[in-house]
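haha ok so turns out i had the wrong file open the whole time. this is the CORRECT one, sorry everyone. sequence first:
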Amino acid sequence: MRTSLLVTALLGTACSTLSGARPLERGERAFGVTIGGALLDLGGAPLPMPNLVVEGAHGITELDGRPVDLRYGLNATALAYGVLGGHVGSSWLLFRPRGPVPRLALTNRVHFATNVPGLAFRTDPVVQGWLAWQPELTASYDVGHQLVYGSVSEYLDVMEPSLTLTPALGAQLDPGPAGGFFVQPEVRWFAAGRVRESRAVRFVGPSGAIGVSVALGTRFGGPR
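then structure:
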């Protein structure tokens, strides 16, 4: 893998997105921006990777009476390296919350990157591509109209598959009326059981990489 896509693969597998914990109902839409990622150890205070992901989602249908939504995003940081990167996927509600039983959702995302022809500032003249599949299982509770969640996911590089189980804890906080603007802070332990092999980039954490991110988004439309 050449330098440009090596950097993008690192950015793509160490970034966070809007959580699929609460799949959108049919006709409901959401848009947001997520910033942050794996924490870099630069010898001083740890700094999150400068991932900036612009995202959207909308509820499209129901499967067995439970909502399914479509999700998509663009990694704006990757463009600085002459690479077009982003993700597409969906989230499906497996179980609705009932008393102590949490809501459970299954999210699937496909992350992609390519230094496609036509990007005048791309760093490598050879066209390349990168693809990773991210299945994620998320359990969540409503606290009023706030949402707290925990998840576990796998980032599976299609060309170089390996086990990269990644747990996460986060919340979607509505400072105003339910269903409008929200803030999503999240902590994610990327590839928690993975021993780091590269010395070119140093991450925070006993293994894998600890990451932090914050998303700003809004939901509108659909049932209330």
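The CA atoms of residues 185 and 214 lie 4 Å apart.
again sry for the mixup
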